[in-house]
Amino acid sequence: MAVKTHTWITLWFVLSAPVIFWDATYCFMRPRSMLGGDLHWIWKPYEIYQNIDLVYGIKALEENNGFTNAQSLLNIVETLMSLAYVYLAHVSSWSPAPLIGFAAVTMTLSKTVLYWAQEYYCGFCAIGHNTMSDLIVYWIIPNGIWIVVPSLVVLRLGKDIATSLHVAERAATKTASGKQK
What we know:
By secondary structure, the chain is mainly alpha-helical. It is built from six helices and no strands. It has helices at residues 7-28, 46-52, 58-62, 67-90, 97-121, 132-180. It is elongated.
């Protein structure tokens, strides 16, 4: 059975990969990637973001807060998985490829929801200092995209996987009933 692919899912996985790798390398390269660091020019937009989301800022680094790099490590794992899905679905035509994509995007969604929940349960400790307009522009919209799109991918790939399982079950039932006669 051919792998059912969706252009928008492939585009999401391929186009989000460089963004995720760029973000993760910012985190792993702190303090050199931060404002004042010798490599800051690579991550110039983080000059703003490190003051919007304090998890990315000086305080978290000085406090040796491991969450930033831990989530970055998981970002890399899920991105490698999503790129594996693209390869396995489009190049290898491996029928279980959607399961890899589903697992990858479920990791993305779960981790992003965790990130939002962490903010809620700590009393908005890393973002609560922002004005509402800065919060919307620099945190809610960009991070919200990482909830909305992965949710849609989970639904689409989940439906595809369920359909494939249903087709396989019907075929197995038909084969089994044919053998009984």
